[in-house]
Amino acid sequence: MERFLVPRKPPTTRAETADNPPPKEKRKKTVSRQYHESYLSYGFSWTGDVNHPQPECVVCREKLANANMVPSKLKRHLETKHPFHVQRNLAYFKRARDLNQRQQDR
């Protein structure tokens, strides 16, 4: 019967835990995505800090998180929230971006 039982470890003392601290937790790596000019074709400009930009929709001016600065997520926003603007060309989004910037400067 003894060969089937797993022996218990004796409880550790405080001195042992001070010498051998528990392993540190793994930290999540934060990735700050950078804006690319091709994102304007999906209807997005950027706002905020140059090192940590946030994508901003030029149609509804909604600001997304930096983690959403991926072409697939930007395209999904355009297709789901603004389906009538999917067929628009790049010149339309440039005019909308410039208009938004002029309104912010006032």
UniProtKB/TrEMBL annotation:
Stretch list, region Disordered: 1-33
Protein name: BED-type domain-containing protein
Protein source organism: Champsocephalus esox (pike icefish)
Lineage: Eukaryota, Metazoa, Chordata, Craniata, Vertebrata
